[in-house]
Amino acid sequence: MAKTSSIEKNNRRRKMTAKFAKKRAELKSVVMDRETSPEVRIQAVMKLAQLPRNGAKVRIRNRCEVTGRPRAFYRKLKMSRLALRELGNQGMIPGLVKSSW
Fold first, then answer.
1. Which UniProt keywords apply (predicted)?
2. What is the DSSP string of 32-61?
3. Residue 65, Cβ neighbours under 10 Å: how many?
4. How far apart are CA 63 and CA 88, in angstroms?
5. Choosing a second label site near 37 at 20 to 30 A (CA), which of 57, 79, 82, 98?
6. pLDDT(84) > 80
7. DSSP 100
8. pLDDT for 20-75, tens place per residue?
9. Cβ 7 vs Cβ 68: under 8 Å
10. Predicted confidence band at 2 (pLDDT cuts at 50, 70, 90)?
């Protein structure tokens, strides 16, 4: 089980990303547009730098929803390989059969 503080930090980052997503996208579109003047683009870069770092989507870490484990994460199931195996052995995941011989 991951530290509760790490899980909560990641949840705060998700909320902040959702909050600043629209503003960040607008500023990035201005920065990437080659048609705008350099002064306007520089101003947009400065405003983008003023936004909180945790508002960026790349700062979010994929974590298992069961254990909070950050590695060996299956995006489709939103859980780690260890949680997947444990729940699969218990028969909690439909269609998943653990092979044995």
1. Ribonucleoprotein, Ribosomal protein, RNA-binding, rRNA-binding
2. H-TTS-HHHHHHHHHHHHHS-GGGSGGG--
3. 13
4. 19
5. 57
6. yes
7. -
8. 999 999 999 999 999 999 999 999 999 999 999 999 999 999 999 999 999 999 99
9. yes
10. confident
